[in-house]
Amino acid sequence: MLQISPSILSADFANLESELARISTADWAHVDVMDGHFVPNLTLGLPVVEAIKAVSPIPLDCHLMIEDPDRWAPQYAEAGGSSVTFHVEAATDPVATARSIRAAGARAAFAVKPGTPFTPYADLLPEVDMVLVMTVEPGFGGQSFMADQMAKVREVREAVSRHGGEIWVQVDGGVSQDTIGQCVEAGADVFVAGSAVYGADDVPSRISELRDLAAACAGH
Ligand SMILES: O=C(CO)[C@H](O)[C@H](O)COP(=O)(O)O
Ligand SMILES: [Fe+2]
Description:
By secondary structure, this protein is α/β, with parallel strands linked by helices. It has a single domain, classed as TIM Barrel (Alpha-Beta Barrel). It has helices at 16-21, 46-53, 69-78, 94-103, 150-163, 180-186, 195-198, 203-218, and strands at 3-6, 29-34, 60-65, 81-87, 107-112, 130-134, 168-172, 190-193. The protein has an eight-stranded parallel sheet. Helix 6 runs parallel beside helix 8 (203-218). The longest helix is centred in the last third of the chain and has 16 residues, at 203-218.
């Protein structure tokens, strides 16, 4: 199944309830948590996740770009994240972190930055429900898509296929009408798009357009 996860990083932060209503036809609301340390940007934390969980029409896909995810990740699951993704570059014990997310009732995922290879983390697959391959350097929305990450997406898809089970492959950063096709061809099945969705005049139409383009590339 191909899924669209619009990033609220590009939404109007003064009106998050109505901004979430605009993406109600998407599969997930992607919530970028940045701490000003792991990345040079600061966004939102647990109280905001709790508040938007109460009003969101769709489940929250929390992408933690923070230090010490071992400590914080399960709290994002408890606060309402239905999926919680931590960065392997920040985790001290990724196995324990993934297990604590699942124990709190959420889907667990790990993310790799563009400069981080996947292979050393392939052993984590039994512990997670999704792998996020970053297609920009994490920290900011509206950056250019890094096509050179498609080799890594292929590698993750092959490892996931060999492993079996239902592990999703997510791409995040610069995903748009122009770039979603190559993500599908490389094997991604969950697409985060911030500026491409919230920058559109008609947000629901843009979500359908991205879905249709992805399905067409997948040959559906
Ligand atoms: O994790 C992120 C940045 O670190 C965002 O999810 C991502 O950048 C989405 O924004 P855009 O689609 O505009 O690139
Ligand atoms: Fe993100």
